[in-house]
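pinned: reference chain
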Amino acid sequence: MKEKITYRLEDYDYQLPKNLIADCPSDKRHGSRLMVLYRKNGRTEHVRFSDIVNYLDRRDLLVLNDTRVVKARLFARKPSGGRVEILVLDPFRESDSHECLVKSSKPVQKGMELTIENSGGKVRAIVVETYANGKASVVFKSPMPLLEMLNCYGFVPLPPYILKRRSFRGEADFDSVRYQTVYGVKPGAIAAPTAGFHFSKELLGKLRQKKNIRLAFITLHVGYGTFAPIRTEDIRLHDIHSEWCEVPHETALAVKEVQRSGGRVIAVGTTVVRTLEWVATIFGEVRKHKDYCNHYIYPGYEFKVVDAMITNFHLPKSSLILLVCAFAGRENILRAYREAIEKKYRFYSYGDAMLIL
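pinned: its C-alpha cells
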C-alpha cells in the first residue's frame, strides 16, 4: 500500500543523542559504516563503506559533485578594533563586490573599512552595502584574485558542531584536507558535499578496475542555505536557497547511455540528486546546462533520473531529510534512522553513510 504523504514539518523530526554527532571523520575515508536501505521493503543491511563495491554493477553510473570547499571564513577588525567574522557566500563568482555574511558585536555600517591581517600581510575589506539578516556587500582590496586571497587569509567554514571540537585555528590544516572530497577540483563551495567524503582514491580505483564502474561529475557549489532551517509548519511553503550548478555535456551523455543500457544512475549526495532532477524537470531529460538551481524536493516528488543514492544521516526537520524521505519513504527513513541510533551510527557531515537502493 502506498504511503500517505504528510506535509507537516513535525512529522520529519527525530531525537538524536548528542554523542552520535560526529565532530571528526573516521580514520580512513572508506572505513566509515554503511547502512544499506532497500526502498521496496524497508530492509536494511549493515556493512563498511568499502563494501559498497558489492552493491554496484558494471552497468551503473556513479555521479559525483566535483565542487571544492573554499576557505571562505575570514576574521577582520573594525577601525575601533572590534572583531568581525566574514563568510564570503559567493566565492565562485568573478565580481568587484561579494555577498557576505558579517557577524560582529555591533552591526557593521555602510562605508566601514575592515582589516584582515595575518603574518603574510594585510587586506582591506570595504562594506559597500548592508542588508537584512547580517548580509552585506563587500569589496576586498587585494592584488590577489579572490580565491588566492581566501586561501592565504581564510579558514574552512566548518559546521558549528565541528568548530566546537577544539580551537578552530589549531584544526585548520586537518579540516582543509578531510572536509573535502578527494575528487573536488572546482573551488566555489562554502560547505562540502559530504556523501563524497567516504570515497578514497583507493576505493575509486577499485570500483573502476574490479567492477568497471563509470564515473561522471556535476558541479554544485554548496551554499550557506544548506544549513538554513525550515521555518514553515507546512513544508510546501518553504523557500529553498539557490546554488550555482552545472551539468557538463559528458555527464548528460553518460546518463542517457546508462538509461538506455538498463543500468542505474547512482547519485552521490543530495546535491547530485537535486542537480540531475532539476535539469530533467526543465528539459524532460538530462542535458548540458548551468545556472542557479533552487530545485526543492520533498515527499510527493516524482523522481525522473536517480535510481539509487548515497547519502549521510541528516538533521531532523531539514530540507535534506525531506529529500531522502521523498526518495525512500518517510516511514522507511525514520525507521532506518531509529535503527542507526540503536546501533550507534555517527551522524551529520563527518558521520557514517547510507546507500538507498
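why pinned: The radius of gyration is 21 Å. The chain has eight helices and 17 strands.
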